[in-house]
Amino acid sequence: MKxxxxxxxxxxxxxxxxxxxSGCASFGRGVAEAVLKKDSEDTRVCKVRGKPFxxxxxxxxxx
Length: 63
What we know:
- Helix content is about 60%, strand content about 0%.
- It contains two helices and no strands.
- The protein has helices spanning about 5-35, 55-60.
- The longest helix has about 35 residues, at about 5-35.
- The protein is elongated, with a radius of gyration of 27 Å.
């Protein structure tokens, strides 16, 4: 069975459009979930032990 070039083009366009729209839908769903969830600030207590750490800035400045 041979498909005409017009039918092939429409079929390809339909497949590409379906893939594009499904990607947009999942992206929109992710954004909507993030907006609706609105996590509040993390108030868990965290204890850190050890010597103070000055960071990497002094090491970078020496170079």
